[in-house]
TrEMBL record:
The lineage of its organism: Bacteria, Pseudomonadati, Pseudomonadota, Alphaproteobacteria, Hyphomicrobiales. Residues 57-178 form the Transposase DDE domain. InterPro entries: Tnp_DDE_dom. Pfam families: DDE_Tnp_1_6. This is Transposase DDE domain-containing protein.
Amino acid sequence: MPRRKQASLAAHEKDIELVGPWTETDGRAKQRFARVGVTDAFLPDKFQYDTVSDSYVCPEGKTLTPRYGHVRPGRKMVRYLASPTDCRPCPSRRQCCSGNQRYGRSIVVTHEDPVVSAFRSRKNSPETKALIRERGRVAEFVNAWLKDKLGLRRFRVRGLEKAGTEALWALLAYNIRQWIRLRWKPRITAATA
């Protein structure tokens, strides 16, 4: 995911509009919370944000304050932590942070770059879906054929020029195959009929 965010930021700087699929990771996050014993009532989206104090309030009314942030390309992540003295006596501890014996509950809030958010929102438009289908038909098939039929998963030579020559030979073989299929096979079929 980080490469996709970096690519969308770099393309925006060059005034290029990227189109591509986006994999949502919300399902994996919910599975991770379920694995450590967090119920749906205590997922991060159930915590209320207080704009005045820049803190979150858990469903039981305890305050989580920002402790540290982490900046990555396309996003800024801030971890909000509750005090262990608030969480230890809490009656909902088993549903909220049962696996965490040492610290209080924490949540990580991600602030996405507007460019990345725009890229993510474009993925569901009909135009984008049509472009992705077209790409699969035009580009992905050729790549799959080169990998499967010619074994072009890795170049067998070293150096940019030699690798380019090897790619050129592979593409030439593909184009000749297509030319035979489109040009000669109809003639042969018509002649034998």
